[in-house]
Amino acid sequence: MRELVDAAVSILSLVMLMTALRITTERRLDRAAKIYALQSFMLVLIFLVMGIFVDHLFLVWSLSGFITKTILVPYILLWALRRIGVKYDAKPLVPVTLEWVLAGLSIGLSFALAAGIVAGSMGVLIPLAVSLSLFLIGLLQILTRRSTVKQILGLCHFENSSHLTLAFMAPRLPETVEIGMATDVILLVFFGSILTMMVYKQFKTLDTSIMTELKEVNGQ
Amino acid sequence: MTAPTIYPLIALGLTALAGALSLTNILVAEAATLIASIISLVASLLAVLGITTGHPLLEGELWLDPYSAWMMLLVSVVYLLTALPSIHLTRRGGLAGLKGESYYLLVNAAFFAMFTIALFNDLFLAWILLEICTILTVYLVCIKGGGASVEAAWKYFMICAVGMSFSLYGLVTIYSIGASAGVPEPWRWTSLATHLDVIASNPRSLIAFMFILAGFSVKAGLFPLHFWLPDAYAEAPTPVSVLLAGALTFLPLYVLLRISYIIPAGSPVYLLLLVVSVATILYASAGMLITRDVKRLLAYSSMEHMGLMSFMIYLAHEGAPGLALLAFAVHSMGHAIAKSAAFVSSGFIEEYRGSRRIEDIIPVYEADWLIGGSLIAFLLALLGCPPFPLFISELLAAASCTHALILTLYIAVILAAFAALAYRMVYMLRHRRGDGGDPPQPRGRSCPACYRTAVYTALAMLIALTIAAPLLAQLGRPLTLWIAG
Question: Where are chain A's structural domains?
């Protein structure tokens, strides 16, 4: 049974990784938000499997993840996108090919690091490696993508990455942490979306590289 | 439950109540926030005076010892100095697209979170609350409207959120090290601090602490990820600048101070902390020399003081701990009062002149000689001139340097920061408006009573702190002794 659980968790983790790569390179912002919902749903399924077969505590994680990350976060992002009417991502700072290379290197580095931390058990190694990959891909997305929505989704990758790491490296945390993490992600995306709307209102674009007023104000 | 234990809980309860009442109408929101801030100040002061033993009075998810009571007092001081200018901000309609009630809700929610951080014992709770404070205040930074403030808010949002994600990863790693070694309740810093051998023996802890340091440094505006700080302070409306500069930027350093007690002695993390502190002070000094904006000048001064306080955290471990901890306590309070009030005074002068450029606002006493004179007094306090509390804390920190090289380095960075701010002050006092072009005409408003009250209250608090500083020796007691009770 343990092998089956490990296999299920590993496969679901790998699907999460694929969705992260797809979000980074997806040009349609609304589609990127929907793929994020899929990524979060994979996380929810991981918690569900662990909740049924490992520790019932994860059932609570699964439920809160479903409400916050699978439903509310994509809903808020899609609501903001509908309000401003922007459909496409801005041109990335680096060529997409280079982005793929960097993402590949990040994944390689993550698997090497994870293998150094948990030698042996594949059921922990793959989720941990995926968690580190999500973190690095999120960082890459924030650095190379200029649209505010893509940068918020980069932060969401961090959130999913931390959640996955918490599950495998820090189980049995007090419930306050889970409630706090759920509140945090909702506030992060809600205020990020409000800011996105303000950015669009001021600059008529979501491209952060257009924002240079501070340089002008400070005479730089 | 003893009386000193109830006082912080009163402050927490009243802040939450003020937040809830803020939703009713603007007059209720104003009154509730002001009353909550005054009672919180009194309650925190009673808590500080009431804790006379070395035993912590709360030891669960929340931790109450004399040091955390002191931090409650610091937050309540900033709460009052934020509540007063907020009245003027909401009444003159300086909130673009935000209702006054929502403004007060966000402010009270941020202070509720900050009061809880002052009492933290759970590392994850502190992280979550710091992150929530950041998100709530991001919106407050850009409520004036305009491209520059939205841009500043976006920078603040992204840089701090990325930084905090790094620290979360670090905290998770430390937790897993503790949990796998059987440390009870490994999410509490007090529990981990009594099992330092477990952490010291695990090589992963070094990377974890590097991540934690990187994350909290970003939030505290330390070099090299400080870019958000001058922009956010400068573009935020006056009360929000007070909230950020007085308490919110400092609290990550307080959390870092507590976390430093789970970093094993001799760890390279301390050396990294020293390097970051020195680089921050030097960078901030250069910033103070070249900036021509009074709010940015105060922001760079904040960076300098954050650098100094992180230097004090280093000294609490690699110098004389008692003196360094006392210096940290006095310095943090002195900085919170002087910087908050300096933002209030400069906020009025900015409104009076319609400009933040130093060339346009000099002589600063022309708008109102009492407010302008107070700004000079607060800048002198921030310079560390005697008899102000920051002079005492900087002397205490110098006395806590046990190594000649560290003392030399400390004196060098202090002198660099002093020279930079003193140069700007001399410029403000000696030059006349219009030296750099046509000055804007004054708008001729008189100083709002709430600004005036905030400035005079802060002056009284600075004097009280100067008198009380020698009586605070208890705060120099090593924190590890409180863990043991």
Answer: 2-207
